[in-house]
Amino acid sequence: MRALLLLVATGCGRFGFGDGAPPDAAGTVDAMARDGAPAIDAADGFVLAGIVARYPMNDDPATGAIGSPQLPATCAPCPVSAAGKHDGGYRFDGSVWFELPSTTLVGVAPYSVAVWFKLASYGGVGAGRSIANKPFDTTTALNVFNLVVIDNGTASMESTGGTTNDYTSSPNITPLDTWHHLVATWDGTTKRLYEDGVLEAATASAITDSAQPIRIGADRDYGTSLFFFDGVLDELQFYGRVLSDAEIAGLAAQ
Predict the structure, then answer these.
(1) Cβ-contact 82, 230 below 8 angstroms
(2) Is 40 contained in some domain?
(3) Coil, helix or strand for 38?
(4) Cβ–Cβ contacts within 10 Å for residue 78, how many?
(5) Helix, strand, or coil here: 96?
(6) Has residue 66 been placed in a domain?
(7) Most exposed among 23, 25, 93, 95, judged by the fewest C-beta atoms under 10 Å?
(8) Number of domains into which the chain is organized
(9) Would 227 be classed as within a structural domain?
(10) So what's the pLDDT on residue 152?
(11) What is the pLDDT of residue 168?
(12) What's residue 97's pLDDT?
């Protein structure tokens, strides 16, 4: 399987865009239109229409702040800065994570999640390396959403209808220490998982939502953090719609 996944993005270069503002010192463009609404980052090329939260990961999370043009977050404990697929990235050491200030980025409404990842180690049999997780509750191991590399390197999109977890998994083994792009989509009836721009799995499923927060870099079972991500993440993006095959292939080509 491939070693690192970028969930969704297209284009190249990091020059000013929508509002004409140049990149900041870290290379991050403030993706806001003149009216204050999120804009399409046409010049930067990493953002498609329908973006609801983007984490370029070009800043220093050691300050406790996680930069986003749409939905900034905080962390404690925090990952550290590292070389990313595009500019900077966040290095997770298998013990840190951060939560997003929204419970609605993934759920029962259509969505897409995209990310670049480079895995440093596998979780082992019966375990995994969770990239993004939204649990069903704090009393079970059920997940509304879990983007995870399980066991010895199989990327998977995990969800629940309320009784058991359902896995939509790639047949590939992701090599370690290599960048790969991963995209998970949900259209209301079918989950799809793309790796490096290629559709690897599709499953008709029922998903039950929850009001639990979304955690980046760790799973939560019975209210306890585990299955920590070990490696580097970059360009984590959430969309409030299903991206097309062509859009996903374009993001993975960056």
Answers:
(1) no
(2) no
(3) strand
(4) 20
(5) coil
(6) yes
(7) 25
(8) 1
(9) yes
(10) 85
(11) 97
(12) 95
What does the alpha-carbon distance between residue 44 and residue 71 come to, in Å, rounded to a whole number?
Answer: 19
**Pick from 90, 33, 32: which is nearest to 56 by CA?**
90
| Alpha-carbon gap, residue 163 to 71, rounded angstroms | 31
Token reading at 131: 């990239």
User: Using CB atoms within 10 A of its CB, is residue 165 exposed (0-12), middle (13-18) or buried (19+)?
Assistant: middle
Q: What is the CATH number of the domain that holds 138?
A: 2.60.120.200
Beta partners for 216? 98, 132
d(CA 108, CA 106): 7
Q: Which of 124, 149, 151 lies closest to 232, judged by CA?
A: 149
Question: Facing residues of 185 across strands?
Answer: 112, 192
Q: Which residue has the tokens 């991963």?
A: 182
Residue 192 lies in a domain: yes
Instruction: Return the higher-pLDDT residue of 173 and 16.
Output: 173
Averaged pLDDT, 8-18: 32
Look-up of token digits 């498609």? 48
SS3 100: strand
The pLDDT mean for the chain works out to 85
- Bond before 77 cis per omega within 30 degrees: yes
Residue pair 195/157 in contact (Cβ under 8 Å)? The answer is no
| 213: containing domain | 51-252
44: confidence class by pLDDT, cuts 50, 70, 90: low
pLDDT cut 70: percent of the chain above it = 82
